[in-house]
Design a protein that fits this description.
Distance between the termini: 38 Å
Number of strands: 28
Mean pLDDT: 82
Number of helices: 38
Low-confidence stretches: 463-469, 476-491, 663-669, 715-721
Structural class: alpha/beta
Strand content: 15-25%
Largest sheet: 7 strands, parallel
Length: 1038
């Protein structure tokens, strides 16, 4: 070696520098100066150094020579590629949010990533956490695509919940906006493409008014201007990275303005997620409308649903038979051949391969082989990823038992008299009015069924317009009326009649003093709290008057209650109720029946009885949720004995099991049946026997619907990927650590700065191993500031401020303490390290081989001894960029090959918890270790070849599908433009004719865009595979 040579430390090969001419020490032990690439310099004995050859040796030679790197070389190399955001077999949202790990909640994430439509409908049953699943998808997009603009659209009553959930669980600071504020934000995106935000808007607040696009007299309302901006931006760069639409069933009717809002948002959003507990009914036009919104080209018409289902049916049937171990190789080939007879799959390269090279009988009989074949079949049709549905019965091992009880109050004489007189008067009025007013006449009957004293008190008061509208709205909510079609306020005739009756026969004080229903409730609550002191109770009623009446009555009996209804600060009331020293009972209207988590309570009281099982399920779903700790929940249903409610409960709801199981998934059908039943029972003079026959008739109709629903749910499997296999993949990813941890981030950042900017200091704080005060070296501050400026990340970190916060390396997003800044996988500091490593290339690269030692306590199921490992990065470029890290491990002592998950778990654990194995070169046979490493790599190379071939087949099918969808899209747009041009040409209005060039220009622009995209896809037909070694070496478990 001589001055000017590039050298490295033998003990730490990652430390590379240039040999200087200066020396130090006595002649017998003379040291030479090394100027390291990180800017430091130090004297070393020549024997501690080795010359860096121009052609660096590979892992085989390095292991053979015993030239091992350190633990941080393995750890840094793995973390670098993990943080690229591109690994297909890494779940970036796993354990990175403030949520409990539930494997099924990642099923939508994985299906969304595989979906060619960039959209998904999550139709999970109530209470399984659809909000969390959508948040996980956003977390995944932020890590993979640096997504920056999120819009959540939901019913107004859920806006506050979304804001709280995004902040608490995902660390996202979102703002609630109206139409005008959303318009301003989107206009800013047009001016500043790097503009970022997370916004929440209500469906009611931003849906376009009718006539929003009136060319003669365009509306100036903010929602209309917003709609026009969205419409004009359809062919431009997407304004939004992700749109989440909660309670998406409100968009199911194509004739509503709410649906129009969805149609305007979809073209300007890169990705869309819809959430709804609506069932997967494939013959239901409502569901078609939703998936049509997600991708109108994939599902252009209602029959396209049927064709997709028919095509998928034999594939799904074969998949299920494979999973149940009920198929031989011969059966398999026959089934694949039959599937390819359908035009949908006749050109499928994946099915052709499976037919020509089917799995063996041995593979079809092993659990692992069956799971892999099932996954291959699920990937044949990527459109199967557009809908996902999980049921409670599929994921809850110990399901909560519902115990419904009917509490029947016998009317007092004064109550019976009041009820009869009001009922007779209402029925007389019904005969005088037009039949279309029948819905309004159900209001007083349902108010009395709730609370006679509260109803009488309300009728006696001179209700203003707002109060009248409120009463109407409450009744509409109870009977699930379509508010868009009942927007007018009730006429005054009924209200005047009620006031007159109340004044004439209603004695509010007497009704309260003889309130049989309240006395029944109070006595049962006393007994319940005697047996369960301190337990919280949730009571529902449709009517505010009832809620406030109950609050006053309970207060007189020493029971503290909090009321919650629309227009109130919902979160404040819920926080007050949840406190251990807070009120014992929550008195709520339907505002808490959607989007509220109350699983800390196990008793629900229906003070008035919903007749629609969908409404019942919404209420029960507030406490029967994931996280409910009790094995049983109580449901008390209060009715007046021998009343219509009593009959409906016994002959309809109890017969259907509405309180014991979820029937709410049949919401649309049930709602219509219940509305008809309510009108006939409440607005006609029927005898008790006639009422019973009418109720029985409804029960039979609904039971028939239930049977059809079971069939429809089974057919739905034809459009839903195999959930259990996906969940098993997620569980395996969790077990082997296939996600980013705070410890990974700390080591990644610390190792980098110690090498690249040695003046940087990370000072540990207290006993928290992940909490540090970070002081950047001067050159690091300069480079980091330049990076922040270039990436427009100002305001995302305090590290460059005069008073930076403490840094906690924690990949679980959530609300941080005021004095702490969370460093997660998308933090500017982590992104800066990745960028610096990418730019530095080999100068800051990690040594390709490492030797590590790991205590067996960290992996008790693994045998002690030495192991050889290889980690490779597989990269394939085609219609999609796919990268993955693949692991292989062999035992030096037993020559045993560990399977993929075991190998990954060992290497990842050693990287995170292992120490340097400094004596590895002297303690193992270098030739044998090098040979085993080469055999491991050869095995991975062979696996990579099969992987590339499988990707090529899937890619060819995917490109064929995507080109077909784009061509269909272009044909439709062309037809629409020609129809529009023809309409303008026939117009006598010069202004309309002047629009023709603009229409042609937009069409040409769209044709250019789509044809360019098709050309790009066809260029990607040939895959570009790139395998490379990330790290290799040895691990000793001791």
């Amino acid at each position: 070696m001589q001055g000017g040579d590039k050298v490295r430390l033998k003990a730490n090969p990652g430390r590379i520098g240039i040999l200087g001419h200066e020396t130090d020490g006595p002649p017998a032990r003379q040291r030479v100066l090394v100027n390291f690439l990180d800017g430091t310099e130090e004297f070393f004995l020549p024997g501690a150094l080795e010359k860096v050859e121009k052609k660096a040796p590979g892992p085989y030679e390095l292991i053979k020579q015993g030239r091992y790197g350190r633990t941080n070389d393995l750890r840094g190399a793995i973390t670098y590629y993990r943080l690229s955001g591109k690994l297909a077999n890494l779940i970036y949202s796993m354990n990175s949010t403030n949520t409990d790990f539930l494997a099924y909640q990642f099923k939508p994430v994985l299906q969304f990533l595989d979906s060619p439509t960039n959209g998904i409908l999550i139709a999970d049953e109530v209470g399984l956490g659809k909000t969390i699943e959508a948040g996980l998808i956003w977390t995944e997009l932020r890590a993979r695509e640096d997504a920056r603009r999120l819009l959540v659209v939901c019913p107004a009553m859920l806006c506050d919940k979304w804001k709280r959930e995004l902040s608490h669980r995902f660390g996202v600071k979102a703002s609630i906006v109206d139409a005008h504020e959303l318009l301003q934000q989107l206009e800013e995106v047009k001016r500043q493409p790097h503009h970022e935000f997370a916004l929440i808007a209500s469906l009611q607040g931003i849906r376009p008014p009718r006539g929003w696009n009136d060319e003669e007299d365009p509306s100036k309302a903010a929602a209309a201007r917003l709609a026009r901006l969205l419409d004009e931006s359809e062919l431009e760069e997407p304004l939004l990275d992700l749109v989440i639409i909660d309670e998406a069933h409100y968009l199911r009717n194509q004739d509503t303005q709410t649906y129009r809002l969805g149609a305007l948002l979809r073209p300007v959003a890169l990705n869309m997620v819809m959430l709804s507990a609506t069932p997967i009914q494939m013959r239901n036009r409502d569901l078609f409308n939703l998936v049509h919104l997600l991708d109108e080209d994939a599902f252009p018409y209602e029959q396209s649903f049927d064709s997709t289902l028919r095509a998928n049916a034999p594939i799904v049937d074969l998949r299920d038979r494979v999973l149940s171990s009920a198929v031989t190789q011969q059966d398999f080939v026959s089934a694949v051949t039959a599937a390819q007879a359908l035009s949908w799959f006749e050109d499928s390269e994946q099915l052709t391969y499976l037919r020509e090279k089917p799995p063996s009988d041995a593979e079809l009989s092993s659990p692992r082989g069956r799971a892999e074949v099932a996954d291959q079949l699920d990937r044949v049709n990527p459109l199967s990823k557009v809908v996902t549905r999980t049921l409670k019965r599929d994921v809850q091992v110990n399901r909560v038992e519902r115990l419904p009880v009917v509490l029947k109050a016998r009317m007092s004489a004064i109550e019976q008299s009041f009820y009869n007189q009001v009922t007779a008067a209402v029925q007389d009025l019904c005969e005088e009015l037009d039949i279309s007013q029948g819905f309004l006449l159900t209001i007083p009957q349902r108010q009395m069924a709730s609370s006679m004293a509260a109803a009488c008190e309300g009728w006696k008061a001179r209700l203003d317009t707002a109060d009248e509208q409120q009463a109407f709205g409450e009744a509409a909510a109870e009977l699930d009326a379509d508010m868009e079609n009942h927007a007018r306020r009730p006429g005054g005739t009924l209200l005047d009649k009620l006031r007159a009756i109340a004044q004439e026969v209603g004695d509010t004080k007497a009704l309260a003093a003889n309130d049989s229903k309240f006395e029944l409730l109070h006595s049962h609550l006393d007994e319940y709290w005697r047996q369960h002191p301190g337990k919280k109770v949730v009571l529902f009623s449709f009517y505010r008057a009832t809620l406030y009446y109950l609050q006053r009555r309970l207060a007189r009996n020493g029971v503290q209650a909090v009321v919650l209804h629309g227009g109130m600060d919902k979160q404040e009331a819920l926080d007050q109720f949840e406190r251990s020293d807070g009120p014992n009972i929550l008195l709520s209207s339907e505002v808490a029946a959607e989007g509220v988590d109350l699983q800390f309570s196990s008793l629900l009281v229906n003070y008035d009885l919903p007749w629609n099982p969908a409404k019942i399920e919404q209420r029960i779903g507030r406490i029967d949720r994931i996280g409910q700790q009790e094995e049983q929940i109580l449901i008390w249903n209060l009715v007046y004995e021998d009343s219509i409610d009593d009959r409906v409960y016994t002959r309809l709801l109890d017969r259907l099991g509405a309180f014991r199981q979820a029937l709410g998934s049949m919401e649309a059908v049930l709602g219509e049946e219940v509305r008809k039943l309510a009108y006939e029972l409440l607005s006609h003079k029927l005898t008790p026997e006639q009422m019973d026959r009418r109720i029985d008739s409804s029960a039979v109709a609904i039971e028939n619907t239930q049977r059809r629903q079971i069939q429809l749910e089974s057919e739905a499997a034809n459009l839903i990927a195999h959930g259990e296999y996906i969940q098993n993949k997620v569980r395996a990813a969790d077990e082997v650590g296939r996600y980013i941890r705070g410890e990974d981030l700390l080591a990644y950042v610390r190792d980098f700065f110690l090498r690249a900017y040695p003046g940087t200091r990370l000072i540990a704080q207290n006993d928290d191993s992940l909490l540090y005060r970070m002081e950047l070296a001067t050159d690091a501050r300069v480079r980091f500031a330049e990076f922040i400026q270039a990436q427009r990340l100002q305001g995302r970190t305090t590290l460059l401020s005069s008073s930076p916060l403490l840094m906690r390396f924690d990949n679980r997003k959530g609300k941080a303490p005021p004095s702490v800044e969370i460093v997660s996988q998308d933090h500017p500091l982590v992104r800066f390290v990745g960028e610096q490593l990418r730019l530095a290339g080999s100068e800051l690269s990690y040594h390709p081989v490492a030797a590590l030692e790991l205590l067996q306590i960290h992996l008790p199921k693994f045998q002690r001894g030495a192991y050889v490992y290889v980690v490779m990065r597989w990269s394939v470029s085609g219609s999609r960029e796919i990268e993955r890290l693949e692991y292989i491990v062999r035992s030096l002592d037993h020559d045993k090959l560990l399977d993929g998950n075991q190998a990954e778990q060992l290497v990842n654990t050693a990287a995170l918890k292992g120490d340097d194995w400094l004596g590895a070169a002297d303690q193992i046979d270098p030739d044998r270790a090098a040979t085993l490493q080469d055999e491991c790599r050869t095995e991975l190379d062979e696996r990579f070849r099969y992987f590339v071939e499988a990707q090529r087949r899937e890619d060819a099918d995917r490109i064929r599908l995507m080109v077909g969808l784009l061509e269909r899209h272009l044909a439709k747009k062309s037809q629409q433009a020609q129809e529009q041009i023809q309409k303008h040409e026939l117009s006598s209005n010069p202004k309309r004719r002047s629009l023709i060039p603009a229409v042609r220009g937009r069409l040409q622009k769209e044709m250019n865009r789509v044809n360019e995209k098709i050309g790009q896809l066809r260029l990607k037909t040939d895959l570009s595979p790139h395998p490379s070694v990330v790290s290799a070496g040895v691990i000793r478990i001791s």
